[in-house]
Design brief:
With 210 residues, the chain is of the alpha+beta class. The chain is 39% helix and 16% strand.
Length: 210
């Protein structure tokens, strides 16, 4: 896909996420990997009001080359790309239900959400928790990189999810599935659960590379 088309797709996905309440204000950011660098959404801009011509262009090391200043959370994206060399896109949101789960004290930090549905297992898999860091702390990027090895998504404590995908559409589908599963998890909290069995999860991972 051409760079101009990718720019249009980033803006379209941003509008879709914002319009459906999966992000709000100027929160959330999107990036796409190019052959020689990255495109990212600018800082302090609503995902519902992105301009293709003003997206930030970064080189392969993450240095700003052109466009508006990139998101202040660029280091999250670069950490995911380093851990997931096959990733073509990364999305980070402050989506309500995932953030709510990230504030709970009694979740498993190695796998925050249980296998409630097949599509969650297929699109997200295991979801490790990244410890809390203050906003803008570069150490968070390194922590994301460490936790993302072998995982396509991580959940930042008291912050929100970061998801990598083979392309922009895959990343968007996965982060939406994560948010819906977080919602289900909170609705079903303290109720008896029928989870997918370990054998069922393994079958999904074997068949779909989850």
């Amino acid at each position: 896909m051409s760079e101009s088309r990718l720019r249009e797709r980033i803006c379209a996905v941003g509008r879709s996420l914002f319009g459906r309440g999966l992000t709000f204000g100027t929160t959330g950011n999107i990036s796409v990997r190019l052959e020689d660098g990255f495109l990212t959404t600018p800082t302090n801009v609503s995902l519902g009001e992105l301009d293709p011509a003003r997206l930030a262009r970064l080189d392969a090391q993450g240095r700003h080359l052109a466009g508006d200043p990139p998101t202040k959370e660029t280091f999250l994206h670069l950490g995911m790309y380093r851990a997931r060399p096959e990733a073509g896109a990364v999305i980070h949101l402050h989506s309500t239900f995932a953030v709510a789960v990230s504030c709970l004290t009694d979740v498993d930090p190695e796998d925050v959400l249980p296998p409630l549905t097949a599509y969650y297992v297929m699109r997200v898999g295991k979801l490790p928790l990244v410890p809390y860091f203050p906003p803008g702390d570069p150490a968070l990027g390194r922590a994301v990189e460490e936790r993302a090895v072998g995982h396509r998504a991580v959940l930042l404590a008291n912050h929100g999810p970061v998801v990598a995908g083979a392309d922009l559409e895959a990343a968007a589908a996965a982060i939406e599935e994560l948010e819906e599963t977080a919602k289900l998890f909170l609705i079903l909290r303290d109720k008896p659960l029928r989870l997918l069995s370990a054998a069922q999860v393994e079958e999904l991972r074997r068949r779909f590379g989850a």
